[in-house]
Design brief:
By secondary structure, this protein is of the alpha+beta class. Strands 12, 13, 14, 15, 16, 17, 18 and 19 form an eight-stranded antiparallel beta sheet that branches. It has a five-stranded antiparallel beta sheet with strand order 5-6-10-8-9. Strands 1-2-4-3 form a four-stranded mixed beta sheet. It has three domains: 108 residues, Uridine Diphospho-n-acetylenolpyruvylglucosamine Reductase, domain 2, CATH 3.30.43.10; 125 residues, 2-Layer Sandwich (Uridine Diphospho-n-acetylenolpyruvylglucosamine Reductase, domain 3); 211 residues, FAD-linked oxidases, C-terminal domain (Vanillyl-alcohol Oxidase, Chain A, domain 3, 3-Layer(aba) Sandwich), CATH 3.40.462.10. The two termini are 32 Å apart. The protein is globular and about 70 Å long. The model has no long low-confidence stretch (mean pLDDT 97). The chain binds flavin-adenine dinucleotide (FAD). Flavin-adenine dinucleotide binds next to strand 3, helix 5 and strand 10.
Amino acid sequence: MAEFRVLPHSVAAQDFAAALGAFEKIVGVGWVIADEARLAPYRKAMLPVDIAAHAPSAVVMPNSVEQIQQLLKIANAHRIPFWPISTGRNFGYGSALPATRGQVVLDLKRLDRIVAVDPEMCTALVEPGVTYQQLYDYLAERNLPLWIDPPGPGPLVSLVGNTLERGGGNTPYGDHFEFACGMEVVLADGQVLRTGMGALPGSNSWQCFKFGFGPYLDGMFTQSNFGIVTKLGVWLMPRPAGHRTLLVQYDDEADLAKAVDTIRPLRMGGVIANTGVVGNAAIALTGVGPRSQFYQGQGAIPKEVVLTAARKFGIAAWNMTFSLYGTEEQIAPNLKIVTEAFERTGARVNPDAYNAAQVGVPSLTTLSILDWVGGGGLAWFSPVSPTRGADAVKQQQLAAAIHVDHGFDYMPGITLNARDMQHVMAILYDRNVEEQTRRADSCMKTLIRQFARHGYGVYRTGQGYMDEAAKQSGPVAAQVNRAIKRALDPNGILAPGKSGITI
Ligand SMILES: Cc1cc2nc3c(=O)[nH]c(=O)nc-3n(C[C@H](O)[C@H](O)[C@H](O)COP(=O)(O)OP(=O)(O)OC[C@H]3O[C@@H](n4cnc5c(N)ncnc54)[C@H](O)[C@@H]3O)c2cc1C
């Protein structure tokens, strides 16, 4: 009998072997992975968690909804948990690792069809394996005047995985769940649910009207373990007549509040339509070179060292970018309004900057942050607050102190929406050094707890930190989630532990 290093919880080796044999009959030879060498890529993460606690037992790769339905029958019979992934590149939030040890990764990257694009309604319907690059190329090849909204690692990652995590990009369509419309979901018992207008046979508005009739269910399938999403509708931005990206810089670290309080009314009033981002000098320096180029000492890189190095490359204490879109005639008055607003607060404004993500172009430039320290360690901490200068400064001071205490550099890229800000920061460390990994884990846990004490929750977190984040929402939310889980997945076979939810 085959030997398994990792088994699903409470499943005997012989039952697991039988289940894998049955899985293989459904998906075909080569699409079930149980040997250690081929499992290795699925047992990697940038997060500072103990991989053994999250090691998958196997991987199954179906290529149709029907195959998923058949797999679920066997999984229910043997109580084998499936951890669905789309492209599995949830970098810095857990990559492809399941929330608990022994789950079978249900890798959906073979479902990679762009099912439909409607150039008139500016919508698309995609399967889980479709990457932002794939959709970008599809539109470019057909010369369709539509933009996608790529996240940082856009060329490599999926619209479905990103949207289900409620991730984001930087065009005016930057809040991906807000610009999603309609899902197809396979439930744990194999039934297929189409949300919104998709439930109506022959519906022609599945990708046009989000809400359908009755309760709006789509949100339930994001950051959850209530179903396997096999199709997602997304809205595409009509390519604007023109665009202009601005770089706004403040030399004084204390000026973060000015940046935030100035952009808020401009975002809220629609003068600035896209999700701007403001980063400090350290994160901007990652685009210039590795940390060792600027500092070889112990502990967090001193502020003065960062600011002195940054100045040589035209980088300020805070660097904010956002864009204006439209015709020359539309952009000109808005450019005047925003330039004057920021200059009044002492900022420098460069109206000729470039940011690929803000103009719908997938790019891998943000991955340079991984070279800052080297060694592949990255944990994102992503607390939310109102878009208010005082909150930004409070979070900055809290976060910087916790980073320095743990010997790490504070590297924020703050996402600026009209009413909420996501103060996303990267804990960068060398994953090959155990002591650094432990320190990064402690830094992450301290950040989550300390921020919660000040009323700041996270918008998203990764494997190993979900229970802690879920606890912060209190017992009633936990009870409601558990009731839904029990109703939809009584055997608890879908992604147990996702967002802290089990049966
Ligand atoms: C340098 C850098 C920059 C980044 N920038 C951004 C950014 O700008 N914006 C951003 O949002 N993220 C960013 N990320 C984080 C991450 O890489 C992306 O969010 C990425 O899109 C997630 O990976 P994925 O698309 O492969 O999703 P997956 O890993 O496939 O999915 C993520 C999770 O969603 C659930 N899931 C996935 N598919 C399904 C399904 N079909 N049914 C049910 N559940 C499912 C699973 O729990 C899974 O673990 C960045 C990472 C790095 C390293």
